[in-house]
Amino acid sequence: MGTLPARRNIPPWVKVPEDLKDPEVFQVQTRLLKAMFGPDGSRIPYIEQVSKAMLELKALESSDLTEVVVYGSYLYKLRTKWMLQSMAEWHRQRQERGMLKLAEAMTALELGSWMK
């Protein structure tokens, strides 16, 4: 996703300071960010509005992981974290299946040209 967008404001559904105290944090493979959050994080405002939480993405140094920080009330944080982890796993499996299909197609092409 390139550089991560900086946080400019706090959504009105996040109560300051209580909802900012104890965020839920997890890590996602950086290659999945575009699929999950859209180009340049364009879907983040929608996800925040629907989940009633605030998201912050932090690129981890020397790693292919990005830290996702979820702020909000206790139940909204947990629900949003679960939803995003499920989305990440779905996209990871989808990309993995695509790579397997590509490998099968390449093998089939190699076999086809060998038989001729």
Please explain how this structure is put together.
- It is a single chain.
- The protein contains 3 helices and 3 strands; from the N terminus they run βααββα.
- It is an alpha+beta fold and 116 residues long.
- A 3-stranded antiparallel β-sheet has the order 1-3-2.
- The longest helix has 42 residues.
- The chain is elongated and about 60 Å long.
- The N terminus is likely disordered.
- SS-based structural class? alpha+beta
User: Gyration radius, to the nearest Å?
Assistant: 19 Å
**Largest sheet, order of strands side by side?**
1-3-2
Strand content: 15-25%
Count of individual helical segments = 3
Oligomer: single chain
Euclidean distance between termini CA atoms:
43 Å
Shape: elongated
List the helices and strands and how they pair.
Blueprint: E1 24-29, H1 33-37, H2 44-51, E2 54-59, E3 65-71, H3 74-115
Antiparallel strand pairs: 1-3, 2-3
Give the key terms:
116 residues, alpha+beta, 3-stranded antiparallel beta sheet, 3 helices, 3 strands, disordered N terminus
Task: Summarize the structure in short.
Helix content is 47%, strand content 16%. It is built from 3 helices and 3 strands. A hairpin with a 5-residue loop joins strand 2 (54-59) and strand 3 (65-71).
